[in-house]
Design brief:
99 residues, mainly alpha, 2 domains
Length: 99
């Protein structure tokens, strides 16, 4: 499996190059990462319906998401959730956010 950034020390050891001599383009750990504007807190609490999807449509989108970027390994593959488990998680999220 290809590694996706963040393994600077391992790469430095493997190739015998000091970490100080690398240009780390992994924005997750790069102190000079890509600038991202502040995200309003209410955007973290949006429900699927607020973006025009039913909970079932949102669950199907989550289920399909890994296929849109097959070269990436994400938490979705790691969790290996069934459609029923995804639907349940979406519903639990919606209830938690709705209060």
């Amino acid at each position: 499996m290809l590694e996706h950034g963040g393994e600077l020390i391992a790469a430095a050891r493997r190739y015998g190059i000091s970490p100080d001599d690398w240009l780390d383009l992994s924005t997750g750990i790069n102190p000079l990462g890509w600038p991202v504007p502040p995200i309003p807190p209410e955007l973290w609490a949006r429900l699927p319906q607020e973006v025009g999807l039913s909970s079932e449509q949102f669950a199907r989108a989550v289920e399909h998401a890994p296929a849109t970027r097959p070269e990436r390994y994400t938490i979705l593959e790691r969790l290996d959730m069934s459609r029923a488990e995804i639907s349940k998680a979406v519903e639990e999220y919606a209830r938690a956010v709705a209060g």
